[in-house]
Amino acid sequence: MSAFARQAAVPARAGIGFKLPHTEAILAAPERVGFVEIHAENFMSAGGPPHHMLARVRDLLPVSLHGVGLSIGAEGPLDRAHLARLAEVARRYEPGLVSEHLAWSTHAGAYFNDLLPLPYNAATLARVVAHIDEVQEALGRPMLLENPSSYLAFDASTMDEIEFIRRVVAATGCGLILDVNNVFVSASNLGFSAGEYVAAFPLEAVGEIHLAGHAVDGEGAPAGSGHGGPDGLGRGAGEAGGGRVGRGGAADGEAGGERIGQGYGVPNGETGSVPGGRGYGAPNGEMGSAPIGRGYGAPNGEAGGAAFRQRHNGEAGGGPIGQGYGAPNGDLHGASGERHGGPLLIDAHDREVAPPVWALYADVVARIGRPVPTLIEWDNAVPDFATLAAEAARADRTMGEALAGDA
Ligand SMILES: [Fe+2]
């Protein structure tokens, strides 16, 4: 039987995401990190080597349990079976913290491969509050809710994200993860001030911070191919989609999307979605949202969904997909577009934390005024344990300096 203490508290220092290949390295030097964070969905099966490895690590380090599949923001009811599995993982590993995203990834029985944003209004607030109540009831404890990274804003929003999150906290008593990289990415993509965002954030409710690296969309992609807008009327990606292969997605007809390089196919029409790369929400036809490329909304069809406010390109919307613009569909054909705004940032979790994100982190910690468990989120192109531990050590240093007033 495992010897780990019940619900060992996650210490207020830096930790890393648990990757199975790092097991032995972690066991050899567990003191290099304060905790490990696990993705709940990776441990929902009953048995197997992953559980064996995690149990050994869990004997030495506290665990933070992070769910990515509950779809807290979904329109329909929570998936009770998924929630039961989450509660079972929590029972088994007794994590010090349990968290989920303010996002949705399911709609009408379809599962998307990514976390999609939602509009902020009274209806979505009531839904999210009810879902968090249900999760906390099932877990028998408060959860932390993570701020999203955003690539588009919704016309259907009647309050800003901060106000929405404040109301969720007030209504549910949940805590928060402040993902500093998400703030930086969203601020850059949507054109708001990251500093003002964190200053307004309900920092007293923050129980964990996330730090991650981000990518600039279009890196390494072929130049000059990022234009064109799908019209959603059935053209293949090659014809209508345009966009950068490798990052882009393209709307397709009823058959749904196709995988395009690293990008994602874009589900369209009634058949719903094919998972696409790092795609983001594009409400589309009857299925509601559908991932497009890397994060660009493309309102489409009668179900509408999100109208693009940012980087809107003329009446038809349209715009380069590869560089991250929405191509509204429906009656208005996507227009071949010129680029608007700066490059789109993507929360890729595939590299070191960027310098301005470290600076924002120091600002956040100084504002909070207490040390906070901080996760280095590095989920793609994962380096060795020593590299992750070095990033964690840098977070510990930065936190200490910020609290000492040296940052
Ligand atoms: Fe995060």
What labels describe this entry?
single chain; 407 residues; alpha/beta; TIM Barrel; 2 domains; 8-stranded parallel β-barrel; two-stranded antiparallel ribbon; 10 helices; 29% helix; 14% strand; globular; binds fe (ii) ion
What does this entry show, briefly?
With 407 residues, this protein is an alpha/beta fold.
What does this structure look like?
The chain has 2 domains: 259 residues, TIM Barrel; 129 residues, no CATH class. Helix content is 29%, strand content 14%. About 30% of the residues have low confidence. Bound molecules: fe (ii) ion. The site of fe (ii) ion has 4 residues, from loops.
**Largest sheet report:** 8 strands, parallel, barrel
Number of domains: 2
Tell me the helix content: 25-40%
CATH class of the largest domain: Alpha Beta
Query: β content, as a range?
Result: 5-15%
Total strand count, please? 16
Question: What order do the strands of the largest sheet run in, or round the barrel if closed?
Answer: 1-2-3-4-7-8-9-16
How would you spell out the order of helices and strands? Answer: EHEHEHEEEHEHEHHEEHEEEEEHEH
Shape designation? globular
Catalogue the ligands.
fe (ii) ion
Helix and strand topology:
Layout: E1 14-17, H1 23-28, E2 36-39, H2 49-58, E3 63-66, H3 80-93, E4 97-101, E5 104-107, E6 110-116, H4 122-139, E7 144-146, H5 161-172, E8 175-179, H6 180-190, H7 194-200, E9 206-212, E10 215-216, H8 237-241, E11 250-251, E12 265-266, E13 280-281, E14 291-292, E15 345-346, H9 355-368, E16 374-377, H10 385-404
Parallel strand pairs: 1-2, 1-16, 2-3, 3-4, 4-7, 7-8, 8-9, 9-16, 11-12
Antiparallel strand pairs: 5-6, 10-15, 13-14
Helix pairs in contact: 4-5, 7-9, 9-10
The protein binds fe (ii) ion (FE2).
